[in-house]
Structures are given as structure tokens and as C-alpha cells.
Design goal:
The structure holds two protein chains of two kinds. Chain A is 69% helix and 8% strand. In chain A, helix 5 runs antiparallel to helix 10 and helix 7 packs across helix 8. Chain B has two domains: 210 residues, no CATH class; 39 residues, no CATH class. Chain B has six helices and twelve strands. Classes of the chains: A mainly alpha, B alpha+beta. Strand 5 of chain A pairs antiparallel with strand 5 of chain B, so a sheet runs across the interface.
Chain lengths: 308, 253
């Protein structure tokens, strides 16, 4: 059963969309990430233009993250003050990201930047995560008790000025690094069509020492707000959000995420992180190959503007 | 005034040459409606060749050839070429084609080169390549090269094409032609330009318009997205929040 997408202007099988939403939703539920880094490339692969894919994916991430936020909120695991500061930085980053997105699209280098961005970002994060989880797995095998949080270790970040108290996170730190993390994630998120949860969580844990109990809820809350803002910015700036495409993906994604979350109960934290690292690396390698392998077709085309 | 009348006369002479055949033609569908289940649509172009109103003869004498050129709304399109730079493939060269047809299909009753000469085909924009040789700041060689590749890419998506057995004659003067408009055909005004050839000369021509239009929900969505982008964006966010919340409620155990 094909469905015509009004903004993407292509006809796609609705079960393919639901299936893609479900599969990515399953993985995102399993690993606790938004899944944008999987969905955006998939959408481009099935023939959606990068512009529509990135903008629509931002909208879908809102849906896939919101039920998680509500669950964490009920348990009181969201640090709203930190979420707000991240959001302020994120909105600034997002405005710049959407602007650069439109600029690069006009220049014809959007594909390159998306590929390079995914390669560098996912490659870097994937290697770090793999290292960390491998070390944790080894330690567990050797019978060493792994400490989840190194509470009293400080680094140079904790010495910066303009300190603010984040009560939920039990932190008294400068707002600058929080703003910067938000800024960076808002920027790459709007440029690459990802929520950035998989960068945000390690950044909050390792750089700011946010306790594990509030880090997921806070990160998800920030992603929801951030992606909602990005959706509106894309809708206004490039008019490339396809509400029907987003809805099909949401329905599949929300359902898939529940099964993923249930499956995640059977795996240990470092096993999950290791698997996620492999997945992230696989996507990074796929983008890396697309840059260096001889393309099937060296020519490509794009519509630059619709004549009145 | 006399000069104007002469000009009009000259144009009329060009459009209706001495042979005095006349073409009556039509399209099966005036509006192709894009609904949510739109998966392409089959169109039929048909017509008959008759003596012109003021002509002396009562019958038309063939053999005739008919070429139907279906042109979609124009867009600015760019063709890009990747080259290998220090091991990385980058888009380095590009040529922009202003006012390039978003859809272009030619249906003919036989091979185009048996109907008339290349010059006539090109000057009347019957050959796809004729759209790629218009003056362009990129220089004629680049334009020709990239234009050729652009037409190939468009053909791969079924947006460009030539069907040299696309027009069927049911009698000496009555023909029909079928065209399947693909689901990726861009919305907008379309023109079907029909040419009647006799001995390699155009003896009659007529254009019929039809429209490809989003209707109902598709139209509403596309209209909202372009006319009220802020409200549309907010609606998208509201939908996402609601869907996510509903999913959480439904699946909570």
C-alpha cells in the first residue's frame, strides 16, 4: 500500500515506513537513544531528499523521546535547570545549524558535510564508547567492582567562573560548559538530523559528572525541547518537514521503542554500550566508505528553486 | 498598426502552413489529482486530423506522423559532478539550468529521425537534448556535457523519456497516445504540444493543457507548509508530543 508524501513529493510503501520506524524505534528503546543517526541515513537511502530527511527526522525524534521524558519526570529524574541551560545553548546552536544547512544546500556541498559530519562524529563517539565498554567488560570478568560514578574527581571544567547550583544533579559548576555542550549538540543536531542523545549522555557523565540517575531524563528532556525548536526552525526556514512521513515513522517508532526497552532489561549496561558502540561505528564506516569509494554515478542533480 | 497586422499575419502563416490541415486534439484527464494513494496515472492523448476550415479539399491526405511532447512545470535544476580529490569524492563541478522542465516525455508514431530532420526537432524543442543547449554562463561544452548527464539522470527517474512507438494511428487521420505519469511527477501546469508532420514538415500543431494538482489532505498540507510555516511547524511538534505521550500511555504496563 503506497502513500504519497505531500512535502517529500514521492510515493512510498506505508509498511516500509512503519517497519523502518519500528526497527529504529526498537534499537532506540534498547539503547536509550533517539535513533536519528540511523533514521536520517535510511530516509536518504529510500529516496527522500537530505533536506526533507533531516527536517522530518527532527520532528520524529520529538515523538520518540517524549514518552521517555514523561517516564523519567514521574520518577523525578529530570534536572530542569540544567535542561534549560542546555536548551538555551542548543537553540543558539540550532539557529546556526539550520542557517548553515540552507547555505550548504545552495552550495551543493550538503551531502559532503552530512557524510563527513557523521563519519567524524560517530567514528569518534563510537571508538570512545567501545573502549569504555570493553574496559568495563574486562574488569567485570576479572572480578573488579566497577564504580559507576567518580563523584569527587574534579577536572579543569569545574574551575570555570559563573557557577550555578544544579540541585537535582547535586552539582555546583559554571554554566559555560553546560551552555557549550548545548550549543554544540544543537548545532550538529540540526545540521545532521540527529537528536544527539548519544553525544549528550557521555558529555554530561564524563565532562560534568552528572549522576547517572538524572542524566538520561535530563538529556531526553533537552532533546525533546531542542528537536521541537529545530522542527519549527526547519519548517520556517526550508519548509521541508513532511508531517505525514514523520507521523508514519512516529507510529512505528513509538511501538518499536516499547519492545526495545523490554529487550534492554535482559542486557547489562556495558554490554548495551558495547553493542551501541558497534552500531555507531558501523554507520560511521558506511559514511566513510561513501566518501572514498568510487561512486556508482559521479553525476547527481538537485532542484535549486522552483520557478514561479 | 500595419506593421503589427503584418506581424500577426506572419505568425498565423507560421502556425498554419499552406497544407491547411487542422488538428483536433484532447487529453483524457484535465486534472490529475494527487491524493494520498497517488501512485501515478495513465493519460490518453487523442485527436484527429481534418481539413482546415477555409481549405478547399474535403479529405486530408497522409501519411501523417504525430509527435506529442508533454512538458511539466519548469524548475531551476543543477547537475553536479563528483571528482576524486586526494582520495575523497567531492562535488566539484556544477552547471545550473534555469527553467529546465521538471517533466518531459515525447511520444511519437515512429522513429523521430524518420519523421523529420534534427534541426526541426531541436528548434521545436522536441528532442530532450534541445533543453540542454540553451545559452548558459558555464560555456557550451560544459553545458552540453552536464545537460546530457542531467537528461540521463531524469530519464532514470522516469521524468524524461522518448517513446518512439507511443502514438498509434487507428485510421489515416485518427490517433491516440498513452502516457503513464509516474508518482514522482511534480505538481503544476503541464502542456501537451502535438505536432502533425507530413513529408518532414509540420503541417499542424496544437497545445492542450492539463494540471497535476494535490487535492484534499495533500493540498492542505502543502499549502499550510508554504503559507503558514510557523503554524505548520508548531502543529508538527504538537502531533509529535501527542503521539509520543499516547504511545507511552498505551504501552505502559
Amino acid at each position: 500500500m503506497n502513500i504519497y508524501l505531500p512535502i517529500a513529493e514521492i510515493s512510498v510503501n506505508v509498511f516500509l515506513l512503519l517497519g523502518m520506524g519500528g526497527a529504529v524505534g526498537f534499537l532506540s528503546g534498547l539503547f536509550g537513544v533517539g535513533g536519528g543517526f540511523l533514521m536520517t541515513p535510511l530516509l536518504i537511502f529510500i529516496g527522500v531528499t537530505p533536506a526533507v530527511a533531516v527536517a522530518t527526522e527532527a520532528n520524529q525524534i520529538v515523538a520518540s523521546s517524549v514518552s521517555g521524558v514523561l517516564a523519567h519526570w514521574r520518577r523525578g529524574n529530570v534536572d530542569f535547570r540544567m535542561g534549560f541551560v542546555l536548551l538555551v545553548g542548543g537553540t543558539l546552536g540550532s539557529i546556526f545549524g539550520v542557517w548553515l544547512f540552507t547555505f550548504l544546500r545552495g552550495l551543493g556541498q550538503l551531502d559532503l558535510v552530512i557524510s563527513l559530519g557523521f563519519l567524524v562524529l560517530l567514528g569518534f563517539v563510537g571508538v570512545l564508547m567501545l573502549q569504555e565498554s570493553a574496559r568495563a567488560l574486562l574488569k567485570r570478568r576479572q572480578g573488579v567492582v566497577v564504580r559507576e560514578r567518580q563523584a569527587n574527581q574534579h577536572n579543569w571544567i569545574h574551575g570555570l567562573p559563573w557557577r550555578v547550583r544544579f540541585k537535582k544533579s547535586r552539582l555546583y559548576i559554571s554554566v559555560l560548559p553546560v551552555l557549550l555542550i548545548g550549543l554544540f549538540i544543537g548545532f550538529v543536531g540540526s545540521l545532521l538530523g540527529i537528536g544527539g542523545g548519544f553525544i549528550m549522555v557521555p558529555a554530561l557523565v564524563y565532562l560534568l559528572r552528572v549522576p547517572g540517575s538524572v542524566v538520561i531524563g535530563t538529556s531526553l528532556a533537552q532533546v525533546v525541547a531542542m528537536m521541537a525548536a529545530t522542527t519549527v526552525l526547519h519548517a520556517v526556514q526550508s519548509q521541508s518537514v513532511d508531517i505525514l512521513l514523520a507521523f508514519c515513522l512516529m507510529v512505528g517508532g513509538v511501538a518499536g521503542a516499547q519492545f526495545g526497552a523490554a529487550a534492554g532489561m535482559h542486557l547489562r549496561g556495558e554490554q548495551l554500550r558495547g553493542l551501541l558502540a558497534l552500531l555507531v561505528l558501523a554507520v560511521a564506516i558506511r559514511f566513510g566508505l561513501s566518501l572514498v569509494l568510487t561512486p556508482d554515478d559521479v553525476f547527481s542533480m538537485a532542484v535549486t528553486s522552483v520557478a514561479p | 498598426m500595419i506593421r503589427f497586422a503584418l506581424a500577426v499575419f506572419a505568425i498565423v502563416c507560421m502556425v498554419l502552413p499552406a497544407g491547411a490541415e487542422r488538428l483536433f486534439s484532447s487529453v483524457s484527464t484535465e486534472t490529475v489529482q494527487i491524493t494520498s494513494s497517488f501512485d501515478g496515472e495513465r493519460l490518453t492523448f487523442f485527436g484527429t486530423i481534418a481539413p482546415d476550415a477555409g481549405a478547399e479539399q474535403k479529405f486530408v491526405e497522409g501519411p501523417f506522423h504525430v509527435v506529442v511532447v508533454v512538458v511539466g512545470p519548469t524548475q531551476d535544476r543543477v547537475a553536479r559532478k563528483k571528482t576524486n580529490n586526494f582520495g575523497v569524492w567531492l562535488n566539484t563541478e556544477q552547471v545550473e539550468f534555469k527553467g529546465f522542465p521538471s517533466y518531459f516525455h515525447v511520444l511519437a508514431s515512429t522513429r523521430l529521425r524518420d519523421i523529420t530532420d534534427v534541426n526541426t526537432l531541436t528548434t521545436n524543442y522536441i528532442l530532450p537534448e534541445s533543453h540542454a543547449i540553451s545559452p548558459n554562463p558555464a560555456g557550451w561544452w560544459q553545458t552540453l556535457n552536464f545537460g546530457h548527464e542531467l537528461i540521463r539522470l531524469m530519464s532514470e527517474q522516469d521524468l524524461f523519456g522518448v517513446q518512439e512507438n507511443g502514438v498509434l494511428f487507428h485510421s489515416e487521420s485518427f490517433y491516440s497516445a498513452q502516457l503513464t505519469l509516474p508518482s514522482n511527477a511534480p505538481p503544476g501546469p503541464y502542456i501537451a504540444q502535438t505536432y502533425v508532420f507530413k513529408d518532414g514538415e509540420i503541417v499542424a500543431r496544437k497545445s492542450d493543457g492539463f494540471a497535476v494538482r494535490k487535492i484534499d489532505f495533500e493540498r492542505f498540507v502543502a499549502f499550510s507548509a508554504t503559507q503558514y510555516p510557523l503554524l505548520y511547524g508548531l502543529a508538527c511538534v504538537a502531533l509529535a508530543l501527542f503521539t509520543g505521550w499516547l504511545g507511552g500511555v498505551l504501552f505502559r504496563r
